[in-house]
Amino acid sequence: MDPFTALGLAAAIIQFVEFGAKLVSNSREIYVSTDGRTKEHETLDEICSDLRFLVDDIDEAADLAGEPTKRIDEEVALRKLAEKCRNTALELQSLLKSLYCTPGGRVASLKQALRAAWGKRKVDDVEARLKEYRQELMTHLVAITSNQQSSVLRELRTLKEATLSMQSNHSDVSFQQTFLRGLYFRSMPARHHGIAEAHQKTFNWVFGRTGLQRAAAVHVSNLTDWLELGKGIYWISGKAGSGKSTLMKHLGDHSRTAELLSTWAEP
């Protein structure tokens, strides 16, 4: 349950609890005319309507909350509390309707009317339940708020770690780019162009891993594995005029080199 949905559900419950507590505890004088209409403050119709709206608010907030994907005890308890509030609201609504359906007469207060209909014990029970709901609600809200804060802190911690990782990667890339710029010289393209092309099959053994190619490749400590998986520096040495530059040009231009390096560069 996300924070806004939880707060919406809690707000609906708070509204009902406060309204219900006020309804049964305040001695609000009500005068009923012969047609059943109140002369002062709210009519019983309006009270019933208010209760009905509160029940609808609780239902709507609970529906928006839905079934939690991760069963958090406080969220489940909050849903149960909403259901208890709903049942109590319907109970009050039913009594108020029965009072309204008896036009005429005069009652000293709404609380007295409730006591007359339910009896003192019943009204006291409703009052006690409403106080209990209020206390439950505050407990659940504190727990849910704590859970949400913990979740936010975890997300912030993850974000911080990702930021530090990006900064580290940026430093690595910056160092690598500086290193590559240090190797560059203006005549590099001309130097590359001036190196003779290798014969079509001269250096095929470099990427080989089977048969005669494997036997030849053993002398270069398996360059393919190094390009794909290796770390550190791969050193190629040889006598002057032995074809080192031609080999390097062949490796640099060959599509297989790019494929192997792409595998190495994957996260």
From TrEMBL:
It holds the Pfam family NPHP3_N. The keyword Repeat applies. Residues 222-257 form the Nephrocystin 3-like N-terminal domain. Keywords: Repeat. This is Nephrocystin 3-like N-terminal domain-containing protein. It comes from Colletotrichum phormii.
